Amino acid sequence: xxxxxxxxxxxxxxxxxxxxxxxxxxxxxxxxxxxxxxxxxxxxxxxxxxxxxxxxxxxxxxxxxxxxxxxxxxxxxxxxxxxxxxxxxxxxxxxxxxxxxxxxxxxxxxxxxxxxxxxxxxxxxxxxxxxxxxxxxxxxxxxxxxxxxxxxxxxxxxxxxxxxxxxxxxxxxxxxxxxxxxxxxxxxxxxxxxxxxxxxxxxxxxxxxxxxxxxxxxxxxxxxxxxxxxxxxxxxxxxxxxxxxxxxxxxxxxxxxxxxxxxxxxxxxxxxxxxxxxxxxxxxxxxxxxxxxxxxxxxxxxxxxxxxxxxxxxxxxxxxxxxxxxxxxxxxxxxxxxxxxxxxxxxxxxxxxxxxxxxxxxxxxxxxxxxxxxxxxxxxxxxxxxxxxxxxxxxxxxxxxxxxxxxxxxxxxxxxxxxxxxxxxxxxxx
Length: 430
Description:
The N and C termini lie far apart (64 Å). The radius of gyration is 24 Å and the shape is globular. Mean pLDDT is 83; it is low at 1-41 and 285-302. It has a 17-stranded antiparallel sheet that branches. It has helices at residues 3-24, 64-71, 79-88, 133-141, 308-312, 408-412, and strands at residues 47-59, 94-109, 115-131, 150-152, 156-173, 179-205, 211-223, 237-250, 253-282, 317-324, 328-336, 341-350, 358-367, 371-379, 385-396, 399-406, 420-429. The protein has six helices and 17 strands. It has a single domain, classed as Beta Barrel (Porin), CATH 2.40.160. With 430 residues, it is mainly beta. It is 14% helix and 53% strand. A hairpin with a 2-residue loop joins β8 (237-250) and β9 (253-282).
């Protein structure tokens, strides 16, 4: 009978399991600096092309030590690792956000030299989960240590979204050559979508373990696919978005303003269910839900008796879903001290993904003609700070590589810190 509890909180565990796919795969890990949509403004380039990838995750409670063990180590969650997380938990307002993007961008200058054609392809993965302290404790320890207690499981929210875009647009440099703007429209292909909301939820385990009482008001919806094999082949929805920005330089000062993915995607073949009831079960014991995350499917299984609909005596509905894409806002400022040194400040916000706006401070130093190095300091948007380093190297006459990592805290103090980011970018210009 422990399937009941497993079903209701599998959506939280799936946040970790889907992220593990990206950490452990051969997919490139990131290019455009976290918090920055990189659109270089150089009117003299007749062609510019780049491929990039990045990932970034942050939390106000889930520690780097836990994430490192799950995605880099053996996967064994020791009692010490659990205690590290429990020391950081807040009573209700616990959050984890994840973003990953892989893409290609090309710019071609028209003969007028004032305008450029923009063309790009992107794959975007986003996730956000909000949970209570009791929910995390249940997932880490099971219900046995909390016999005789009532656990508060709500509020709880989880969103997991994957979409791909084809982007086409225009970059225009004004005649004064100090101001430029760009805009592009995107066709959006929906790939994956999951969403769970629990407005009320409690779990009581009798002191002698004889029964468990669950009270919940839960809604859940997801795209129904038989098997996730190739994201390029998956086509589960369609939509559109627009993006744009402006850049202005005044002497040693430069200002940037950008907004990306203001739009929507309509998913079809959505299965949804509503659970609003009290349940009493005999003899339920959940020892460690993290070790049984792959045993069950939330909505449909080959075994009809073990499906969520049968266990909770509810029926899922087939419907469509119009989902507003999480837009990303970016504001940047740069001060050029001289030809070798520049200082940058960036503020960005990924709506529905970041908890708060993200702030990045960056020093930019040129070492000779082919190497640039930038120390980084970031307020993550989840109430904590990360530091890192960016290195850019010219490898051939017109070819460059840029690497960026916010890993210092993860390596130095993983038990008390949360979040990391990595990015890689390969580009050329002629």
